[in-house]
Amino acid sequence: MDFTVLEKSSDGRENVLVLTDVFTKFTQAFPTRDQKATTVAKVLVKDWFLKLGIPKRLHSDQGRNFEGVVIRELCRIYDIKKSRTTPYKPEGNAQTERFNRTMHDRLRTLMPEKKAKWPEYLPELTFMYNATPHSSTGYTPYFLMFGHEPRLPIDNLFHNDMTGDLDTYLANHQKRMTEALKTANENIHKKASERQDIMNRGTDDKSIEIGSNILLKKHVQGRNKMQDNWHPTPYRVVHRFKDNVYGIQLADGSGPVRNVTRREICDKGK
Question: Measured by CB atoms within 10 angstroms of the end CB, which terminus of the chain is less buried, N or C?
Answer without folding.
Answer: C
